[in-house]
Amino acid sequence: MSDETPESLIPYDEIVQDALRAVVGRVLSSVAAQGGLPGGHHFYITFRTRHPGVDIPAHLTERFPEEMTIVIQHRFWDLEVTDDGFSVGLSFGGVPSTLRIPFAAVTDFVDPAVEFSLKFQASEESEIDTGDDGDNGDGGPKGAPVEDGSNVVAVDFTKKK
């Protein structure tokens, strides 16, 4: 017998990723229907900024050419959820903006209030090739924010055992 696992003709990984992204959609739909977050819940949502269908202001794409993380907590508005993604109003440096994000662009979803986290595999095939090496130009890590009090943060929520 061989120790190698046979290659599946069924895309299980893709099916599971889609199902987990549906969890994000269901949670956001619940928050939108309730008109706000219950209790101490809040979300950190990381997404690929150049993924097809992402619609964010150009200055945010310039600051975050690969990924960015948004915080859904106290100051957000007009949260709308569709089958394919969501839109939300957030303020960045005092400037209100509407972001439209397909669920396929989401790479992380975290609710630190209850230590819940989902990490998604990014589909490289659907990414737009920018020729960018991922450096944000200031020598900092990818997605590192400019300290301006915005809703964008760099987050690493790996659970320590």
Which descriptors would you attach to this protein?
161 residues, alpha+beta, SH3 type barrels, 7 strands, globular
Detailed description of the structure:
The protein is built from 2 helices and 7 strands. It has a 4-stranded antiparallel β-sheet, with helices on one face. It has a 3-stranded antiparallel β-sheet with strand order 3-4-5, with helices on one face. It has a single domain (12-125), classed as SspB-like (SH3 type barrels, Roll). By secondary structure, the protein is an alpha+beta fold. The longest helix has 23 residues, at 12-34.
How would you briefly describe this protein structure?
The chain is an alpha+beta fold.
What topology does this entry show?
Blueprint: H1 12-34, E1 43-48, H2 58-63, E2 67-72, E3 77-81, E4 85-92, E5 95-102, E6 106-111, E7 116-119
Antiparallel strand pairs: 1-2, 1-6, 3-4, 4-5, 6-7
